[in-house]
Design a protein that fits this description.
This protein is 26% helix and 15% strand. It contains one helix and three strands.
């Protein structure tokens, strides 16, 4: 299954980043770097999906990519060297 989840990266005063999602408020993770924080999103999303399944709830419809053969618009963060 593929998902399209909006993410918000918030820099923390003590360093590192917190990642949240306005679509899935239960999704919260962090990392010392942007790369680490984004890498942790996969595990955080898996936990959210498991929670929804345990509660018998579906993820928001627009979070699930129904047709994986169609183009998908997404934005990504690229850090220049």
């Amino acid at each position: 299954m593929q998902y399209k989840i909006p993410l918000v990266l918030t820099p923390q005063a003590e360093g590192g980043y917190t990642v949240t999602s306005p679509l899935l408020p239960e999704l919260v993770t962090e990392g010392d770097t942007v790369d680490e924080a984004l890498a942790n999103v996969r595990d955080a999303l898996a936990a959210v999906i498991e929670t929804y399944e345990d509660l018998g709830q579906s993820l928001p419809r627009n979070a699930v990519i129904q047709d994986v053969s169609s183009p998908v618009w997404f934005e990504t963060l690229v850090i220049a060297p």
